Amino acid sequence: MTKRQKRMAAIAALLLGLGLAAALGFTAFRKNMMYFYTPSDLLANAAPLGAKLRLGGLVERGSLRHGEGLRVDFTLADCEHRVPVHYEGILPDLFREGQGIVATGSLQPGGVFVADEVLAKHDENYMPPQVAQSLKGKNGQHSCAPFKPVTPGGAAS
Amino acid sequence: MSSSFWNMGGYAVYVWGSYGLAAAVLAWNLLAPRLRRHDILKELSAEE
Amino acid sequence: MWTWFHRLASPPTFYRLADRLVPWLGLLAAGLLGYGIFGGLLLAPADYQQGDAFRIIYVHVPAAALSLSVYVLMAAAGAVAVIWRIKLAECVLVAAAPIGASFTALALVTGMLWGKPMWGAYWVWDARLTSELILLFLYAGVIGLNQAIEEPRAAARACGLLALIGVINVPIVHYSVEWWNSLHQGSTILKLGRPNMSADMARPLYAALLGTYCFFGVALLRRVQNELLLRERGTAWVKEQLRSAHV
Q: Diameter of chain C by CA atoms?
């Protein structure tokens, strides 16, 4: 092998090794790379009661109730399951029924998820209001696809 | 220009802030190599 | 093919080619960016959900796309510099880093300015935002390494290795929104099939995107020219350039 071919082989080996290490690392720590859990994960008992976690899903249509002051109650759903959420605080501008959100908080003994922060998670579709109006065929709900369960059994159970 | 254009639906700070920063990055990327070229030419001609 | 390639990689040939390319690329960049910004601010309708805040996309997405592409270019130049020891590749590698870093920073900051009003937070540690921040650190590492090593050719080769190691982060940034769940939404423009954006919104975005790449071409060529002058100091063609620059 010439020196040049040796360098070429060394770089190929370096990239291959790095790629392999990254793939293995990310497979092993897949859960840690997830930003949020879904209602399916919660109901599959993926998280202990009272543990702080983020919960992502769609605010179910017709579930939003405004309480006293800044208190709100709503239901958060992924494609399979739903969890009641209670929150007191300022909501982002994009918060509305049918919208994706990520709430930080913990699951309480009664099965209610009490949140202390709510962030909106919008999707990658952009359109003017008229187009959105004409597309609002079914129920105007956003896709639940981005809210995939983290745990393998999350969706099935 | 109408005031609603500048107001950006209440998001003026965020929208104009983003465009302003983009303009700054573009300007820096044009100016920095030009100034450096000036310095290099000066340095090299001093060597001659 | 190889002789043509070697001629192109010769410093004086490339220097003069850059001089001829820059005006055209600059014109293209000005036209496309002009239309993209004007269209993004005035022609495109407001989004049905995000209203006018969505207009940040016309600076955020081109900056983010460029931040990844420039890194790939830098790593490719790094491989050429390490394997074939071609001087031009060293110049491209060193010249691309500060431009890439500036657009990565722009992508991060415009993203924050977009995130605050829409998501409700400037910053979250999800996979997309975190990996893009790591991209900025990688650029900073290449810039710092280049400045730390005195001998320019040794510096460029060290930077080339670092750029190659870091290239593993590029697919991670790009696919982070698909491999893991994140607060950041999926890709709008690189998704084939159904359109994710109405045409009157997408046209200025594509123009801004292309214009940003042309602008990068101008900035890169100018910086590569500077590097070539420095590394080829004392040669006949640099002396000739010095004379013509001073008249």
A: 62
* ipTM at complex level: 0.94
Question: Is C215 in Cβ contact with B15 (below 8 Å)?
Answer: no
Domain A34-135, CATH number (from 2.40.50.140, 1.20.140.10, 3.40.50.300, 2.160.10.10): 2.40.50.140
What is the mean pLDDT of the segment spanning A36-48?
Answer: 84
**Shortest Cα distance from C96 to chain B (angstroms)?**
11
Q: Is A59 helix (H, G, I), strand (E, B) or coil?
A: strand
Contact status, residue C211 vs residue A58, Cβ threshold 8 Å: no
The answer as to whether C78 is a domain residue is yes
Cα dist. A138→A30, A128, C198 in Å? 34, 18, 20
Please name the residues between 28 and 87 in chain C that touch chain B, using a CB distance below 8 Å.
33, 37, 41-42, 46, 51-53, 55-56, 59-60, 63
Domains of chain B by residue range: 3-47
Are the CB atoms for A49 and A68 separated by under 8 Å?
A: no
Residue C179 resides in a domain: yes
Least confident range from A2-6, B1-5, C62-66: namely: B1-5
Cβ separation A128–C168 shorter than 8 A: no
Nearest CA in chain A to C167: A15
- pLDDT (tens digit per residue) in C221-230: 999 999 999 9
CA distances to A116, C178, C185, C230 from A53, in Å: 11, 21, 20, 55
User: Is the CB of residue A98 less than 8 Å away from at least one CB of chain C?
Assistant: no
Domain interval for residue C231: 53-187+217-241
* Residue environment code for A11-46, b if the CB has 16+ CB neighbours within 10 A, otherwise e: beeebeebeeeeeeeeeeeeeebbbbbbbbbbbbeb
A3 touching C (Cβ < 8 Å):
no
